[in-house]
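Case study B.
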Amino acid sequence: MAETKKWAMVIDLDRCTGCQACVVACQAENNIPINEEKDFLSRRAKQWIRIDRVWEGTWPNVKARFIPVLCQHCENAPCEPVCPVYATYHNSQGLNVQVYNRCVGTRYCANNCPYQVRFFNFHDPEWPDTFWNQLNPDVTVRSRGIMEKCTFCIQRIRRAERTIEGRDGGKVNDQSLKAGNYMPACVNACPTNTLTFGDINDPNSDVSRRARDPRHYKLLDHIGTSPSVIYLKKVDPNAPEEEAH
Amino acid sequence: MKISRRNFLRLASFSTLGAVACNFFDEREFISQSPVQLPEDLVTGRDNWYATLCRQCSEAEGLVVRIMEGRAKKVQGNPQYPTNLGGHSIRCEAGLQNLYHPDRISGPLLRQGARGTGLYSPISWDQALDLLRGHLQAQTDRSRVLTVTGPLRGSMAHLTSAFTDAYGARHMAFQPMEDAAYDQVMQDVLGQQTSPTFDFKNANYVLSFGADFLGTWKAPVQFSKGYGEFRQGLGRRNRGTLVQVDSWFSLTAANADTWVPINPGMEGMLALSIAQVIISEGLAPQDRINQLTGGQGSSALDAYAPNIIAQQLGVPPLHGTEPHEVIREMARGFARSGSRSIAIGGSGASAHTNGAFNLAAIFALNFLVGSVGAEGGVVLNPPAPVPELAKTISAASTGEWHRTVADISNGRTGVVMLRGVNPVNDLPGDIGLQQTLNRDDIFVATFSSFMDETAEMADLILPERTPMEDWGDDVPSPGPGFEVIGMQQPVVNPLPGMNPMGFADILLQLSREIGLDGATPLNMPTYHHLLQDQARKIQALERGSVQNANFNSFWNSLLQQGGWWDRDATADSDPSMPNLAEIASRASQPIITGRTDGNTFNLIPFQTVSLADGSGANLPWLQSSSDPLTTVAWTTWVEISTLVADAIGLKEGDFVRVEGANGRSFVAQIYHHPAVPPNVIGIPVGQGHTASLRYSKGRGENPLHLLGLPLEEQTQSLAWAGTRVRIVPTGESSPIPKFEGIVPAFVPNQEEAIVKVTRG
Amino acid sequence: MQEGKILGYRRINRDLLRGVFENPVKYWAIVLFLGLVVLFAVGAAGFMVNRGIGVTGLNRPVFWGFLITNFVFWIGISHAGVMLSAILRLSKAEWRRPATRAAEVLTIFSLMTAVLMPFIHTGRPWRLMYWVFPYDFSRGIWPDIRSPLVWDPSAVNTYLLSSILFVFIALVPDLAVIRDRSSGIRRIAYSVLSLGWRGTPRQWKLQAIAGILLSALILPVFVSVHSIVSWDFGMAVSVNSWHSTIFAPYFVIGAVHSGVSGVVTVMIFMRWLFGWEEYVRREHIDALGRLLIVIAIAWFYFFAMEFLFGIYGQEGDELATRSLQIFGHPWGWLFLTFIITAFFFPVPLWLFRNVRRSFLWMTITTISVNVGMWLERFIIIVPGLARKQIFTQSWYTYAPSPIEIMIVAGTFALVLMLFLLFAKVFPLIPIFDIKEGQILTDEIKVGRRRVPAVIREE
Ligand SMILES: Nc1nc2c(c(=O)[nH]1)N[C@H]1C(S)=C(S)[C@@H](COP(=O)(O)OP(=O)(O)OC[C@H]3O[C@@H](n4cnc5c(=O)[nH]c(N)nc54)[C@H](O)[C@@H]3O)O[C@H]1N2
Ligand SMILES: Nc1nc2c(c(=O)[nH]1)N[C@H]1C(S)=C(S)[C@@H](COP(=O)(O)OP(=O)(O)OC[C@H]3O[C@@H](n4cnc5c(=O)[nH]c(N)nc54)[C@H](O)[C@@H]3O)O[C@H]1N2
Ligand code: SF4
Ligand code: SF4
Ligand code: SF4
Ligand code: SF4
Ligand code: SF4
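Model:
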């Protein structure tokens, strides 16, 4: 069957409250090691999706803006061509895939990702024995020395394909992804429905519909990365009129 | 090759060298990985998702839990459950770590050493229950037994109060930073026993006074669901406007279109001022105004006209608009949206000596625009359809706790049983519960799964099952505006070696053994039976989301769906109008206690979205998730206005001593915060644990211990926002653990670029 | 015109083979000290491989730090050898003779040291073969030739192999000299190495042609190596201070600047160590000093242009990086140190003949250049990563850990130690070349006139 899917995400900044539920949901789904105090102090904490908080203005007219940033699954990903061993490559469904086996840990890809969403395993991950029970068996536990990042929860996509297409003979679409808990963990968690995930090649999918919102833009588009994550602008009624972009 | 001596030596030295070289590497690294199976293909095994309830906070949302090979792997919001509709919070995820925490107590423990030394020896359940029963039966005056639980709802409230009533014990519910004033005002102003919810989804204008409803107030996930639609709901005509009146920069203030800073405790006055504008400008229907003011019109409130009190309120000029004009704009905006406006008073407004007045004045605004019970307004909740489930036990006020602890120390208590609470840590230190429990004529039993501060004072620890291993039900509060009953089922068995017992089952067993099992619910063999008994009553309603004539099928669907609800069963009460003139007559200034000399600030203790009240401080996912605004994790920080800190000469990461109103003090690190008003400092609660749990011990400090005992005048709840503290630099400094970088942005046009990130 | 005495061939042989046949205590003391430093560094590197990159000061976003800086630095040093030998040989500069071999050997050892850096700094160094060699046939996955990290090893390996060949060709006649003066196993070894050199005209001719051919062929390689190293950075679209088209020539000329300075330092060091006062003379360092003035000014021009290109666009994030480089802490004072030590201190001094002819001053100034050039690489690499793009929340800084400092210190000791050990086995100044120089300056009497003994065919 010809591959026609292209996975994409729409992030509506006007809905995001910065609550961090998506961050921990990703942590739990993807076996991300516990970010200890020393990881924060040495700046090696891993959050595949992070909520950047941006201050705007001065007291008392100060604002905090939140923007969830995860791997943008760039169509023209700067992280890919610099990897000497094809540990990060583009697959036919528009995903920027990270193959842990192959990675030798040069960290070049992380330098060349403009969105700062690649995380390096400086140490081996550690959990107390009992916490191993909660690890997701569908996701590799990354050993030290390799790079990792948001995968758009590829294990869920694969499970959906196996279950829905393979076993039940159905089609992977918005409804089936939702019904089977196959949406990415962060999307499922978000209490404000900031995040929408789906197949952007399907014009009727939620993600396509929301991507057509006039507020849409792409992060650092000028670099030419052509991200698969589409942002919808934050609306600020108090902001001075902006010039059209 | 011929093995000559030379060759042999050569080979030997090569292999020695090789072995030495290989020693650098972990053996695992040499295991060759399959060249075909890339991780993206490695999908094995079957999973199941079971519906249950989240018990990590009082919101108790519907969850689905992913189970593989008998282990819980992931929790997610139950998309069908009406309060959270699939969403969830950080704390919810951390429920898994509660289940698999390495510090969980595996079985009953009996104290060996002195109290607080943590020396316990394991005993069997039979021994433990015998011991507890012995102490209960030994009490001649049964009111000498005090049962302490968290706030309870549903069958657990029913069962626990039946037990304590039958036995004759006292029962009190405890909650850190309880909000007794709120419950009182809901009764006084809205005439409701149940908490209302707010129809953000359809609202156009939300005026929130100190309610951090997107952060931790009441039901943040339920409210966030509505908030998302409020902003950009599909098919909405216009984007809702959120104005947050807050004396501190809460997460909700951060998300508001306008944040109106205000002097702490002045929220009620501001509400009266807004009412004055609406009335004097005729922005609401005249008959409603007459009803609300007892016919007095605006004259009852003229003392609160914006020009007169704006100065007192401490509202700064915003975007070049004068404070009194800011208030007028708020009033007009609020009135313009009519019944699609909501005024909410939250804990920031109620945690003052005049808290009940503040809330009353704020909630009365809803009547002015007719939003009570309207679409896009304040939605009242019906009581539970089954009387046995309607019982709620809400938290006792701090004033009540003060009296109770005095009672204990006067020797009028013989047995204290605590379940699901940690008052030794969470009550203000001045109440002195820890010292009070430290006496020999009291028998203290806890049902805690962890050796927390309260468990360390106990004689007997009977670890209960964690929520994912136990049965339960719930009537959510606030509900979604219609009848909902949530079902909690065990989704996994305890790990091998873990031997907990359900709290409800313990109560039932004790009832049988003491002979209290005369009537339902105490005569049920197990809690499971009790829940099925309740389910039969729900089945008998023959309406709602689950209906089936066959009980087994009904029960299975109930568990599968995670509960029962009936969207048509809404509240029918029509609350009578409060009297604004009467409320205004009760108006009072907040009494702010504490120091006034030196660098003093109004202390705002606040809950973060991760640790909240601190009951999950031992869960690493909560400790490690960075605070949304400061990005700090793992510690306690002091949020201070950048302007003020620069003036005092404090840099980020500097340690300061925070000296409280009661002579207590602690040392914490400074966080430079551009949005904290100059007259306040914010310190998160939730840390400061001393019990030996690996992720929380010795981390940070608990600002509630600095307060003394300021109480709300009418309801005796803790006025935690009404204290002044002094900060004294210690001269020490170290980096603060946070997610954001340390490099400040200072290039002139940098701000433009940053703004672009969120505005495209 | 050359200065210096006319020395007999016997004297030349004795002097220049002093390193090989004599064992001054000074020499062994130094080698021992260097060996200890290297041992510590090997320990540190072993610890790093064992524990993971976590023992460094690296973080997100600064994923590259001291070791990559050091890699670029040593690649730079390696540029002097071939550049001096090849260019000077092709241009028949007379004063090159004592400098060529030391320069070439410096090339080889600094290259070898340089390639160690990216190798040990990867997260899983034992997977080198995935990266450097196209070994993974079974999967059909070959190294990605789009990656500058694949160009790097190819260029560096080519350069290393050709440099070794280059040195060897020039070494053959000298090896024969040693062969003739040694006995036993040593003699056998040198016999093998000297490839049956008998000094026949045909052999001399072939050796000369090979030298010239290699000189010509190696020049493009030398230009390519540092160009390619610069593309490790230039190709990174996301890092503001890296993504620059001028990087290739800028890096090459920078490499020559630090490399030639390094050669001067090393020559003066050899002169002191082996007592080669008659061979490394003031006119040599004077000539190198003059060359350095030209190189330094060319380098400074590229440096200024690179900076100008950066700020000319007036892009916020680029400016943020630039201001961090110049004003930020701790980069500000490092930048000041760099620009003074690499340019403003040495270059004005070199304008004075007395300085150029002073061994002490030339030592000080050339070491100064390399301090500055090390910092230059550091300041290019790290601040750019520290302030990547507009995500201010991810901006950070970097400080090396003791492990990284030990490894870097160890590389200096390693290069010097290998250099000295080389001197134990081979003459560091080409004997035949010096003799050839002598012949060229010899004069004979023809009738009444004294004329050069050899007329060069020009
Ligand atoms: N993923 C996974 N892999 C596993 C295991 C696991 O649990 N999970 N378990 C492991 C274990 S414990 C075992 S024992 C092995 C078993 O692995 P296999 O020995 O491969 O077992 P099966 O796949 O059960 O059977 C092999 C084939 O024998 C055929 N067969 C059945 N009866 C007969 C007969 O009478 N004669 C002949 N000629 N053929 C017959 C069946 O149709 C089948 O095609 O798998 C191992 N591999
Ligand atoms: N229908 C059907 N039945 C079969 C077979 C079949 O092909 N079809 N095959 C048969 C054959 S060949 C076999 S071998 C059996 C296998 O049957 P079982 O022996 O039951 O094997 P498993 O189900 O693979 O694993 C048993 C349990 O061991 C746990 N476990 C894993 N590692 C450890 C450990 O280190 N310590 C402890 N204590 N527990 C661990 C696993 O989590 C799992 O719960 O099944 C037989 N039964
Ligand atoms: S966001 Fe970064 S990691 Fe993801 S595809 Fe783009 S460049 Fe690669
Ligand atoms: S760190 Fe891994 S994925 Fe990234 S470039 Fe190096 S080998 Fe490739
Ligand atoms: S899509 Fe999956 S991997 Fe990516 S951020 Fe969301 S939860 Fe994490
Ligand atoms: S869960 Fe949703 S609202 Fe919360 S931070 Fe993430 S994207 Fe924003
Ligand atoms: S707010 Fe979070 S912890 Fe509380 S019930 Fe909801 S999901 Fe669970």
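Residues 287 and 593 of chain B are 42 Å apart (CA to CA). The remaining cases will be described in the next quarterly update.
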